[in-house]
Amino acid sequence: MYLLIAITAYIVVLFLTLRDIRIYKRTRYQSYRKGAMKGIAAMFATLLGAILTLANPSIGLLLVLIGLFINRKGVREKVFQNAGTLDRFLGKTDIDNQ
Question: pLDDT tens digit string along 27-37?
Fold first, then answer.
């Protein structure tokens, strides 16, 4: 059960990081770049925690929690003007600064 929680947290952090990368690629806003970089660090901590959960669930889940705290959202620019829920979920933006 603990491993399932750790893997789910890793998948969530992975998805949010990929979403930040996609938004940064489209808009070139530095806040999304910073979020993607924090997401990469959080993915490492979460993956390490998931691996350690097999040996010691307490230490592993602590690392997963630390990874989730690293990945917390900061101040971001508004990139969604009239996008729907699915578009926001997938990271499609109304702004395109390529």
Answer: 999 999 999 99
